Amino acid sequence: MAQNAFSRLYHSDVVYSFSRSPTAIISAVVALIIIVGAVGAPLFAPHNPFDLSTLDLLDANIPPIWSADGDPRFLLGTDDQGRDMLSAILYGSRISLLVGFASVLFSLLIGVTLGLISGYVGGRVDSVIMRIADVQLSFPAILIALLIDGIARGLLPRDSQDSLSLYVLIFAIGISGWVQYARTVRGATMVERNKEYVQAARLIGMRPFMVLRRHILPNVMGPVLVIATIHLAVAIITEATLSFLGVGIPPTTPSLGTLIRIGNSYLFSGDWWISIFPGIALVLLALSVNLLGDWLRDALNPKLR
């Protein structure tokens, strides 16, 4: 059975489209390298930027290895605290990906659930959910994330803010991105609920929850996957933006946004590598995910087959 499923997947239109798209292949390879490097950071990183006992302030601001003052121990140089930039980027990508995936999953769960309810039930429930969505769409996502982050920091005890900052950031980014899922799923659900297979499920007495889970949800997941892929890049950039502004991950945790913010203070003094290399990693990650999302959108569009 598993072999038949693998055979169907291998001969599917999506795999064929992927094999014929050099952009999708290159983007997948780049994203895979960054993800593997981030997940395997404890194995691949030359140093551990979280281990304060291994840091030496005398190693601060060392340029990359190809510079005249470079050190063979640090391929991409060090930052102001003596942390190896390559190791910090690997660990920082790990945190950025964690925030991105977790916030996208949170947005997807909220948006898909509300979209299914809104499209299937209709009436006042639909009106209330969509009006809330319209109000949220009138504000930029980054502003909503900043507002939620600020409120959470004001309510949490001061001594626990740094330890809970990761969860607050995931919640803030996730709650600011559910609307696009809800609106897309609502429209697809309103189309599917009037089809014959849904009407037949109702006639045999199937409960609404089972109708939504078994029949409607699988048929609306295509557009949701495309939105989630593109939203992942947006969530990663949003995390970097919040950390750059100083309201995201604390400075002791080397996320990509934090590294860029630290390096920005030394950019005009000649220590360009502290911000440039994390910036390149962030651009490559976001660009590769965006290009994969564009390819997936075209591959799942029946009009382009």
From TrEMBL:
Domain of life: Bacteria
Transmembrane helix found in the keyword field: yes
Pfam families hit by this protein: BPD_transp_1, OppC_N
Keywords: Cell membrane, Membrane, Transmembrane, Transmembrane helix, Transport
Topology in membrane: Multi-pass membrane protein
Membrane-spanning ranges: 21-45, 95-121, 133-152, 164-181, 216-237, 272-296
Location in the cell: Cell membrane
SUPFAM superfamilies: MetI-like (SSF161098)
Entry's Gene Ontology BP terms: transmembrane transport
GO cellular component: plasma membrane
Protein family: Belongs to the binding-protein-dependent transport system permease family.
Identification of the protein by name: ABC transporter permease
